[in-house]
């Protein structure tokens, strides 16, 4: 019998070091707390990291998605296709523009949007596609870009899970027309809250900069600096969605330690893969051999008939019997009450997403986990399945 842990092992924790704390302290002491030089520096370094010409720092991935769609003029009467297997914000941002979200089912292996289903969902009203790189594994971007080119669609990648992900030797953030990243507290690069939009399109980047800061001209952010001007112009009725220097101070050092954090994620995921592939009834994540998985999530699927235990029973047992936290990514968007009421979606509309959802849980995976922590998870899962025999 595996012993219960003395301390709770949470599903996720950020890794914050002395460097981040020192940088934040220096930022506080500088007197510049809002959008300032740290944001500019973070944008420049992040753009270089992913290989994009431009990066615009904002207050969330949600904001990045919304602003990109608005900047492209997408609105009422338009349709935008995305995956049902994502957090609701992906689809919510489409609604906020006035456009209609349309879902295309996932590939049951990769858990990403199926390009064949994407093609079938295109109508004359379709203006954009938002592929979601679920869990840290890239979508089939060649196939998605081919569909987009055939129909003249804007490709806006949701890379909330995909900092460090590559597709055929290319970094996510440098492939589609634009890419939105999340720096939420649980993400691979964490600033508490925050996001980034990357693109090679200078005009698009400029529009998003303006929209993110009240619609003021793009040089207006530094009007309180020694070389700034009090004068500003409002070019459009924009929003308050910019990043500020305290967030960027964290982001700069998170970016510096990202290589080491990624290596540790891969080590833990490797331990999980080796262990769980040997246990009947457990379905481990499929991993492409033509790209790098960022391992934002480790999603384990439980085949109830073979494992003798349901997903929900495993979640409860891990918490109550072994003091181990988990999560579920995600409740498919189309089964939330608003989407069913507003658009008439039913559970059966996207069977691959539903089949996955009913048997999945996300196990703890983050850089500060020890080998003993990972082994505790492995032994607890093994014990639960064995006890169900």
Overall pLDDT level: 96
CATH superfamily of the largest domain: Type I PLP-dependent aspartate aminotransferase-like (Major domain)
Number of helices: 14
The span between the termini is: 14 Å
* Spatial order of the strands forming the largest sheet: 1-9-8-5-4-2-3
Low-pLDDT stretches are none
* Helix and strand run: HHEHEHEHEHEEEEEHHHEEHHHHEH
C-alpha Rg, in Å? 22 Å
Structural class: alpha/beta
Strand content: 5-15%
**Total strand segments:** 12
CATH top-level class of the largest domain: Alpha Beta
**What is the second-level CATH architecture of the largest domain?**
3-Layer(aba) Sandwich
Helix % is 25-40%
The CATH topology of the largest domain is: Aspartate Aminotransferase, domain 2
The largest sheet is: 7 strands, mixed
Task: For this entry, give a set of tags.
14 helices; three-stranded antiparallel β-sheet; Aspartate Aminotransferase, domain 1; alpha/beta; single chain; 389 residues
What's the arrangement of secondary structure elements?
Elements: H1 18-30, H2 37-50, E1 54-58, H3 61-71, E2 79-82, H4 88-96, E3 100-103, H5 115-121, E4 126-130, H6 141-151, E5 154-159, E6 166-167, E7 170-171, E8 178-182, E9 195-199, H7 202-212, H8 245-256, H9 258-276, E10 282-283, E11 298-302, H10 304-307, H11 311-322, H12 337-343, H13 351-357, E12 360-363, H14 371-387
């Amino acid at each position: 019998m595996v012993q219960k842990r003395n301390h709770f092992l949470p599903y996720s924790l950020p890794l914050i070091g002395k460097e981040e704390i020192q940088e934040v302290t220096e930022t506080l002491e500088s007197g510049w707390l809002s959008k300032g030089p740290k944001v500019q520096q973070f944008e420049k370094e992040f753009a270089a990291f992913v290989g994009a010409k431009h990066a615009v720092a904002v207050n969330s991935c949600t904001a990045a998605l919304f602003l990109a769609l608005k900047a492209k003029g997408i609105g009422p009467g338009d349709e935008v296709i995305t995956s049902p297997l994502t957090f609701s914000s992906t689809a919510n941002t489409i609604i906020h523009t006035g456009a209609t979200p349309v879902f295309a089912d996932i590939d049951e292996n990769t858990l990403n949007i199926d390009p064949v289903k994407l093609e079938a969902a295109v109508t004359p009203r379709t203006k954009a596609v938002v592929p979601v790189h679920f869990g840290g594994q890239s979508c089939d971007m060649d196939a998605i870009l081919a569909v987009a080119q055939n129909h003249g669609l804007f490709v806006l990648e949701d890379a909330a899970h995909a900092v460090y992900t590559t597709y055929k030797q290319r970094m996510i953030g440098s492939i589609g027309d634009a890419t939105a990243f999340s720096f939420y507290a649980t993400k691979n690069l964490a600033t508490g809250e925050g996001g980034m939009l990357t693109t090679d399109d200078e005009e698009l980047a400029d529009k998003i900069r303006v929209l993110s800061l009240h619609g003021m001209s793009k040089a207006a952010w530094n009007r309180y600096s020694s070389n700034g001007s009090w004068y500003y112009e409002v070019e459009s009725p924009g929003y308050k969605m910019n990043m500020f220097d305290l967030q960027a101070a964290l982001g700069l050092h998170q970016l510096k330690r990202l290589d080491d954090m990624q290596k540790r994620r891969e080590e833990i995921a490797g331990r999980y893969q080796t262990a769980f592939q040997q246990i009947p009834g457990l379905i481990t994540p499929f991993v492409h051999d033509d790209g790098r998985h960022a391992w934002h999530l480790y999603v384990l699927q439980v085949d109830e008939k073979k494992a003798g235990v349901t997903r929900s029973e495993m979640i409860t047992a891990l918490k109550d019997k072994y003091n181990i936290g988990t999560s579920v990514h995600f409740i498919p968007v189309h089964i939330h009450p608003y989407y069913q009421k507003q658009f008439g979606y039913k559970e059966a509309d996207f069977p691959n997403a539903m089949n996955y959802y009913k048997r999945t849980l996300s196990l703890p995976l983050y850089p500060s986990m020890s080998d003993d922590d990972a082994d505790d998870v492995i032994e607890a899962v093994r014990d639960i399945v064995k006890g169900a025999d």
